[in-house]
Design brief:
The complex is a heterodimer.
Chain A (H helix, E strand, L loop, with lengths): L3 E4 L2 E5 L4 E7 L3 E9 L5 E7 L2 E5 L2 E6 L4 E6 L8 E9 L7 E3 L3 E6 L1
Parallel strand pairs in A: 2-11
Antiparallel strand pairs in A: 1-3, 3-8, 4-5, 4-9, 6-7, 7-8, 9-10, 9-11
Chain B lengths: L3 E3 L3 E4 L5 E7 L5 E8 L3 E10 L2 E4 L6 E7 L2 E6 L8 E11 L2 E6 L3 E5 L1
Parallel strand pairs in B: 2-11
Antiparallel strand pairs in B: 1-3, 3-8, 4-5, 4-9, 5-6, 7-8, 9-10, 9-11
The chains are: A mainly beta, B mainly beta.
Chain lengths: ~110, ~110
């Protein structure tokens, strides 16, 4: 069973397009994370959310706790946004230290 | 800044060899993790450790063991490497802060077993 589901798996966009990546989860969480992984392997954290919405530059992340759903939006996409975007959740406190990961969305932005 | 380093970026080994992957973090984190990442499967937890000399099996521990003799260092051991262990291996460390657990990842080791 997958505690975290992401869609789409692959996404190709033209430069300048608005992009949305979706994440649904099935466990009680203390936080949801959006991670970015560029070719070469390194993973960096973009956002950590427990409610509402966060914005950083052209990236916006939202979460709906009742619906157990989060979205990552990229406005005015650029080829340097090409990467794998991973949704991850941490369980509610006192239920362990584990993270659950989605399988990732591979984004390619074409000039 | 938190730094998590891994001993190698790329590694090529032969079937049957014993393989050591090392991970070091410099922020005094209690929790450390080893994952493997395969296309279409995402990150899968192999083992994690929440303290020195403590370890817990993750989702796919078969064929692997770990060692945590010092707080900053978490080693993943493939006792007898097999071709199905060809993968990207990612180490992470984490801390609880404000009721939330945040993970920091190393750069990854791409292991090829021939």
């Amino acid at each position: 069973k997958n505690e975290v589901e992401q869609s789409p798996q692959n996404l190709t966009a033209q430069e300048g397009e608005f992009i949305t990546i979706n994440c649904s989860y099935s466990v009680g969480i203390s936080a949801l994370h959006w991670l970015q992984q560029h070719p070469g392997g390194g993973i960096v954290s973009l956002f950590m959310l427990s409610s509402g919405k966060k914005k950083h530059g052209r990236l916006i992340a939202t979460i709906n706790i009742q619906e157990k759903h989060s979205s990552l939006h990229i406005t005015a996409s650029h080829p340097r946004d090409s990467a794998v975007y991973i949704c991850a959740v941490t369980q509610e406190a006192n239920t362990g230290n584990q993270f659950y990961f989605g399988t990732g969305t591979s984004l390619t932005v074409i000039p | 800044d938190v730094k998590v380093t891994q001993s190698s970026r790329y590694l090529v080994k032969r079937t049957g060899e014993k393989v050591f992957l090392e991970c070091v973090q410099d922020m005094d984190h209690e929790n450390m993790f080893w994952y493997r990442q395969d296309p279409g499967l995402g990150l899968r937890l192999i083992y994690f450790s929440y303290d020195v000399k403590m370890k817990e099996k993750g989702d796919i521990p078969e064929g692997y063991s770990v060692s945590r003799e010092k707080k900053e260092r978490f080693s993943l051991i493939l006792e007898s490497a097999s071709t199905n262990q060809t993968s990207m291996y990612l180490c992470a460390s984490s801390l609880w802060r404000g009721g939330v657990n945040t993970q920091y990842f190393g750069p990854g080791t791409r292991l090829t077993v021939l």
